[in-house]
Design goal:
Elements lengths: L14 E6 L7 H17 L3 E4 L6 H10 L1 E4 L10 E4 L7 H8 L3 E4 L3 H15 L3 E5 L5 H7 L7 E4 L2 H6 L8 E5 L5 H14 L13 H13 L5 E5 L5 H12 L5 E4 L15 E6 L5 H14 L1 E6 L13 H4 L1
Parallel strand pairs: 1-11, 1-12, 2-3, 2-4, 4-5, 6-7, 6-8, 9-10, 9-11
Length: 324
């Protein structure tokens, strides 16, 4: 009498509703910076030297390394005659001056919205104002902005408490500018304190926080109250990505976490999660979003609800040397 082998019943996957934020991922400044490296490699050949990470995402950096880009900390690491590119975050004035002194061919991938803040700083300085920069110490964008002017011309304020304690170094008029990738809500609080303490303080004609940062934070605010957990794809040194996690928590997400890619997901934290929010910082490629979606599909019966958000159609011009 033959024996029969019973097949194991298929294990059903738990359902998961994914709230996918829009907009998310690359902004126009990031796309422009990456394109500058790609076109430079095509036009001038490998290697090209990039001062600091072109954008704060190591997967983008590794891909560009594979194409022939060499990432350096300072210009003295680039040989004479090299093609050098400055990152999207901006650089102090001393950096292009040094490149010119060494007769290095250099291209500036600074985001035009960061360059706008540099112009504002110079305008305030020429008008005789002392400048308060709202931003995070050590961030390349902050270092680049402070480096546009002589030492002592800019004071950095990072928090509301620092704004309450700030004392101008001299009895000159004041102005404020901000890093482009800050939390909109935190910045509003700091600006309010400065305006209350110094009613005559001058500010930007238009806010310095860039459209992409604002739009991604607005999208997170929409999904966070509806989600049991929110994941943000981005690098730990990416200011705008870290701010998205903070905004998600503040907007009502019981749990929010930053991941660099699918392998970073702490799956036990998703036990019992019915609605998961997902976004990506402005320097995170869409390929990493798709990687996370694939990983979720392996474990869950996934239903995706893509949230309608502000449409972005901003395009920044390339440097003239690469535009032809």
């Amino acid at each position: 009498m033959g024996s029969s082998v019973q097949e194991k019943p298929a294990v059903s996957k738990p359902p998961l509703r994914l709230l996918l934020a829009n907009p998310r991922g690359f902004c126009a400044g990031v796309e422009r910076a990456i394109r500058i490296v790609e076109l430079s490699l095509q036009k001038y050949g490998a290697p090209v030297y990039v001062r600091h990470e072109i954008v704060h995402n190591r997967f983008v950096v590794e891909r560009l390394k594979g194409l022939g880009a060499i990432f350096i900390d300072e210009l003295d690491e680039a040989p004479d005659g090299a093609c050098v590119i400055f990152s999207a975050h901006g650089v102090p004035k001393s950096v292009p001056a040094e490149a010119k002194r060494r007769q290095l061919f250099h291209l500036n991938a600074t985001c035009p919205l960061v360059s706008k803040v540099h112009v504002e700083a110079e305008r305030h300085f020429e008008a005789g104002r002392h400048i308060v920069l709202i931003g995070h110490a050590g961030h390349p964008e902050v270092e680049g902005t402070i480096g546009q002017l002589p030492d002592g011309a800019i004071s950095l304020v990072q928090t509301a408490e620092e704004a309450r304690q700030f004392e101008p170094p001299s009895a000159v008029p004041l102005a404020f500018i901000t890093q482009t990738t800050l939390s909109v809500d935190d910045t509003v609080e700091i600006v309010s304190i400065l305006k209350e303490r110094f009613p005559a303080i001058a500010g930007p004609h238009r806010e310095d926080i860039c459209y992409a940062t604002t739009n991604r934070q607005d999208a997170i605010k929409e999904i966070a109250p509806r989600a049991d957990m929110v994941l943000v794809i981005g690098a730990p040194n990416s200011s705008n990505s870290v701010r998205l996690v903070e905004v998600a928590k503040r907007a009502g997400a019981p749990l929010a976490a930053l991941i660099q890619r699918a392998a970073d997901i702490a799956w036990p934290l998703l036990d019992g999660v019915k609605r998961l929010g997902l976004s990506a910082g402005a320097s995170a490629p869409e390929a990493l979003v798709n990687e996370v979606l694939d990983a979720l599909r392996e474990r869950f019966e996934l239903t995706i609800e893509e949230i309608d958000g502000k449409r972005e159609n901003v395009i920044f011009n390339l440097p003239r040397a690469l535009a032809s």
